[in-house]
UniProtKB/TrEMBL annotation:
SUPFAM superfamilies documented for this protein: PP2C-like
Cleaved signal peptide residues: none
Origin superkingdom: Bacteria
Gene3D superfamilies referenced in this protein's UniProt entry, alphabetically: PPM-type phosphatase domain (3.60.40.10)
One MF annotation (Gene Ontology) recorded for this entry: protein serine/threonine phosphatase activity
Chain ranges of the PPM-type phosphatase domain: 2-228
Name under which the protein is recorded: Serine/threonine-protein phosphatase
Pfam family, one: PP2C_2
PROSITE patterns: PPM_2
Length: 228
């Protein structure tokens, strides 16, 4: 298994994205990409708290729960950790979206809240992609999206972790995986402004290309690539 991480703040003043992963002695592994919500306080802190909490919970409890329950409890624990941090900092609102991929027993387990994504590729063919928890996705199930609607609600998410009592349903998907496939987790700054193929085929030359994109990227952009 080969693992690559990339993050860039783009034209933003600070980087509120966070990527973290752990490969456990058992061979199981957990990968997290979190994107702090810039409209609230301490977005960078929120993404780090949530990412580290999920990684640590999975590492400590990998054999204590069924995989789906493990991820659900990891998300709940991260929400509690963010609540404690929010109270400590004495701020009303902190938040982050998050995408999580766990490899265990030859299967891929995915959970996410918001518009950071998880992709699975077999070669160049996309096998799986998470659907964004966004207001635009909800609206388009009811009516066509107008240009004004897209402009007005772009970036508005309907699920996230905010350290409060209302997490709602935590989705968990289970996908069979085989050797040779590739997992990509990325923030919306990447999948909206960059070519997903740059993450899929990431190498030293593409790093230079991605670095150069920071001159005009309107958002932080980050990913983790896992070549199985």
């Amino acid at each position: 298994m080969e693992i690559y991480q990339y993050t860039n703040k783009g034209q933003r003043k600070e980087n509120q994205d966070y990527t973290v992963y752990k490969v456990l002695p058992s061979g199981d592994s957990i990968f997290i990409v979190a994107d702090g919500m810039g409209g609230y306080s301490y977005g960078d802190v929120a993404s780090h708290v949530v990412g580290d909490s999920i990684a640590s919970f999975v590492e400590a409890n990998i054999d204590k729960y069924e995989p789906q329950t493990l991820l659900e409890n990891a998300i709940k624990g991260a929400n509690e950790a963010l609540m404690q941090k929010r109270l400590l900092l004495n701020v009303r609102k902190m938040g982050t979206v998050v995408s999580v991929a766990m490899i265990k027993g030859g299967e891929l387990y995915v959970t996410w809240l918001g518009d950071s994504r998880v992709y699975l590729f077999n070669g160049d063919d996309m096998v799986f992609k998470t659907e964004d928890h966004s207001l635009l996705n909800e609206i388009k199930t009811k009516r066509p999206l107008s240009a004004s609607t897209i402009e007005r609600y772009a970036g508005v998410v309907t699920k996230c972790i905010m350290g409060d009592d209302d997490l709602g349903e935590i989705p968990v998907k289970v996908i069979p995986i085989t050797k040779g496939e590739t997992i990509v987790l990325c923030t919306d700054g990447f999948h909206k402004e960059m070519d997903i193929q740059w993450a899929l085929n990431y190498n030293t030359a593409l790093k230079e290309t991605l670095d150069a994109k920071s001159n005009y990227a309107s958002d932080n952009y980050s990913f983790i690539k896992v070549a199985i």
